[in-house]
Specification:
alpha/beta, binds nicotinamide-adenine-dinucleotide, seven-stranded mixed sheet, Aldehyde Dehydrogenase, Chain A, domain 2, Aldehyde Dehydrogenase, Chain A, domain 1, 23 strands, 490 residues, 38% helix
Length: 490
Amino acid sequence: MTTVEVKVRRVLHFINGKYENSSDDQTFEVKNPATQEVIAVVSEATEEDVKKVSEAARTAFDHGPWRTMSLSDRCDKIRRMAEIILERREEIARLEALDVGKPYSHAFTGEIPRAAHNLKFFADFMEKQGGEVYPMEEAFLNYTRYEPVGVAGLITPWNAPFMLTTWKLGPCLAAGNTAVIKPAEMTPLSVSLLGEIAKEAGIPDGVVNIIHGKGSVVGTAITENKNVDLISFTGSTTTGKAIMKNGANTLKKFSFELGGKAANIIFEDADLDKAIPVSIQAAFLNSGQVCLAGSRILVQRTILDSFIEKFKHAAESLVVGDPQDATTKMGPLVSEEHFNKVKHYLEIAKKEGATLITGGGIPVLAPHLESGYYLEPTVYYHQDHTARICQEEIFGPIVTIIPFDTEEEALAIANDTEYGLNGVIWTENLKRAHRIAHGVRAGTIWVNCWFVRDLRAPFGGFKKSGIGREGGHHSLEFFSEAKNICIALN
Ligand code: NAD
């Protein structure tokens, strides 16, 4: 087993190129979710600190060199950040496993390289952008310029802190904005490194700033701050609503990537040898703490028994253990509060009459993990797709198998949710795949796969899963103001 150094790290704000304490020296502690050991003491920002960081970002935008430097210089620096992330990949992946409780192997092979790619992709993509030109007969010529919006508030959740922050930071910086990053208070470790990484890459002071603290205080203060022009937020639907209200007075531009409750629809002609392992991943990756999780597994009744048997076996074979261990496939939940919330759904499922297929308990693990926030991979069967466990985003390792008979019924169940982030379809019938893909009201549909991303493609949610799209030119448009210039030619 590999261990990370047991030490309590000190995490500070990064303001105008320097790591600093809060103005009142207040701090809070962060624990390792696998052991409950304290791993970090983090500066807790006051409203005064938010004022200071927003002013630093504003000054860097209005008067600094970032916005006006040549595009290739700007993009070179962003690409350099990506290189440094790859150079420090093991260290960052270890921190992510320590802080979030996700398996190190997933962070090392998946999320951290993707974080580097997020930055490199948007730097490369920005350099290839053109604009529109509209000649008006012989008299006038219109052309467009895409200019940065200003100061961006980037507010991110705890489930993939580093990857999701760079997903916003890449297009934000490439478009010429400055940033105030607010990572989730439960998982600040990896994101706090972005300050020194930006500095080493030659990004001017004040362009990348990071501030820590509670969402209700720091997140609200960023949202209400007049120096902040836009908010790119990933997190829960409830917080999205609060941000929208709090940002109304300063008329902010918003992009929201919110919760999900995806239907993973398995038709009788599905290739189960592929569908089962991928559906297991979709259910239990990061302990089910994934917005795109396939947590409602809709199975055609003709294959229900064999699907349940195989899925149960695969869920029971998942190695649950220490996130730092190379063989671990599932770690703990992120925090005590979240653990209690997820565990409560076990009681709800019982009350709702769901049939437990496997799991539902605390796994037996090595002694050093006994106080970790672990739950077994849990699978229920429920006939009634309107039950709470089939409707609410549990955000843990609990999924429900729901039967259906016809395509129409599958579609009706899939769409009977307030969310619309994504959907998954398993069938070997091409026409059916297209029909269902068109019918499911969600932003991303995967057919015979899951979690495959092309960063050029739009990403975002229908209904209460979000507002706007990120990815490719969608991200750049969000982080830019389009300007039309009209020139008289005579
Ligand atoms: P959360 O909404 O509780 O917190 C997200 C961030 O918002 C944190 O940094 C938090 O401090 C901050 N925050 C909290 N209250 C705030 C307020 N009033 N004003 C401003 N900021 C505030 O979400 P979470 O529990 O960290 O993350 C889990 C949620 O994120 C799930 O619903 C999940 O589906 C969603 N998520 C969505 C995507 C996506 O791409 N759609 C990706 C990952 C996670």
